Amino acid sequence: MTQLIIDGLTLPEIKGGAYACPETPLSEQIVMISGRMVSELRGGKVWRPSANYEGWYFTIDFWSSLSAVLLSGTQFDAAFLPDNGTELQVSTFLVESITTPSYVFSRGGTPYWTGLSFVLREVRPHA
Q1: Taking 90 as the threshold, does the pLDDT of residue 98 lie above it?
Q2: pLDDT over threshold 70, residue 1
Q3: Among the listed residues 64, 67, 71, the one whose alpha carbon sits nearest the alpha carbon of residue 111
Q4: pLDDT tens for residues 61-80?
Q5: What pLDDT score does 86 carry?
Q6: How far is the first Cα of the chain from the last one, in angstroms, to the nearest whole number?
Q7: Rounded to an integer, what distance in angstroms lies between the CA atom of residue 111 and that of residue 59?
Q8: pTM of the model
Q9: Do the Cβ atoms of 46 and 24 come closer than 8 Å?
């Protein structure tokens, strides 16, 4: 079952807890003058899909297309499978965090990217 389609690119299905899409309150971490960190609720709930593709290998062409979207710093449309649903939903997201994948070669000398993981955050609250 498809879990994530980012800007028209269908990512492979991952299992074993490597994909999650919880619905969380929109908040921001703020550092107080005393140095304490607090979460300030901004209102509404947003989806936060996270995916860990550790052990998956992406071709150079696929990673080039995906990285153009994920590393652009701008918002993009994505279809996602929520934790509490069975059908894909569509919304606009920003990248909250991303790990830089590693560049590796197969035994035959074919180059791949591996070790990608990221967390997305919905731009506007949906509820």
Answers
A1: yes
A2: no
A3: 64
A4: 999 999 999 999 999 999 99
A5: 86
A6: 26
A7: 7
A8: 0.84
A9: yes
Q: CA 15 to CA 17: how far, in whole Å?
A: 6
Tokens 């299992």 belong to which residue? 15
Pick from 115, 114, 8: nearest CA to 60:
114
> For 40-54, how does the pLDDT look when each residue is reduced to its tens digit (9 = 90+)?
777 789 999 999 998
Phi then psi for residue 57, to 5 deg, are: -120, 125
- Those residues whose C-beta lies under 8 Å from the C-beta of residue 62, and which sit 6 or more positions away, are 9
Closest CA to 123 of 96, 94, 99: 94
Question: Which burial class, exposed, middle or buried, applies to 73 when counting CB atoms under 10 A from its CB (0-12, 13-18, 19+)?
Answer: exposed
- Distance CA(49)–CA(30), nearest Å, equals 23
Segments in 1-72 forming alpha helices (H): 60-70
From CA 7, how far away is CA 40, in angstroms rounded? 30
Cβ contacts of 17 within 8 Å, gap of 6 or more: none
Coil/strand/helix, residue 64: helix
- 3-state secondary structure (DSSP) of residue 60: helix
